[in-house]
Design goal:
Two copies of one chain form a homodimer. Chain A has about 140 residues and is α+β, with helices and mostly antiparallel strands. The first copy, chain A, has a single domain, classed as Pnp Oxidase, Chain A (Roll), CATH 2.30.110. In chain A, a hairpin with a 3-residue loop joins strand 5 and strand 6. The radius of gyration of chain A is 17 Å and the shape is globular. The two termini of chain A are about 25 Å apart.
Amino acid sequence: MTEATHVLDDDQCWELLRGEEFGRLAFHLAEEVHIAPVNYAVDHQSLLFRTAEGSKLLAVVMNPDVAFEIDTYDDETARSVIVRGTARLLEEDEAHRAENVPLRPWVDADVKYNVVEIIPTKMTGRLFDLSKPWTHLRP
Amino acid sequence: MTEATHVLDDDQCWELLRGEEFGRLAFHLAEEVHIAPVNYAVDHQSLLFRTAEGSKLLAVVMNPDVAFEIDTYDDETARSVIVRGTARLLEEDEAHRAENVPLRPWVDADVKYNVVEIIPTKMTGRLFDLSKPWTHLRP
């Protein structure tokens, strides 16, 4: 790791995760790896997202091994949090948890949503200084 | 798919891919799925990124099945492109291809970089209207 890269601790990762609402989920679908943008919310020490019936839902039921990523950046720094974890479909009597967090669909959809929980097993956060490396590229 | 979601054709996907330089790579590492932010550039009909020796490189050499995602959004719309494809390490005599595209590391790193190419096998682009769904949430 270079001097321009800084490791974030778990608290800093959770703070970033709580501050965003849009990330990307990577999951297995049969032998393939897939990735999809998802709206999510932090609920205690886990992440919740909604999904209609379909490949994401089928995928995590068949293979709960997932990875999740968020990132934010401006001109000077980039911050990324990567979560490895286990996904599970919430039971009907748990799905109300999604009502208590700011988990809003970005597009209006008249479909039934299932709530999936990602329980992190490993979390990695990085802050990258972006200002320095450009300087040597400038004429 | 709801009225608020629009499918992008391949040309529109390539245009979005050429317009960005930062995406997320999902890959297999043994039995696990992993995700990592990467800087990339479009070179003809493929994507190039650089990586140091490490898990990303090992992963795509061991299992070339990958997925890649970019997204951009503003207050009114979100656009996302998802690429499923095959990754391969460029040979030494091909690595110069990375010199001809705007593939710049975001952080300064004094390490040898390998160039990996992703050849898309399937591309999916979506544009989401974000303005409408919020209205019903407003008091």
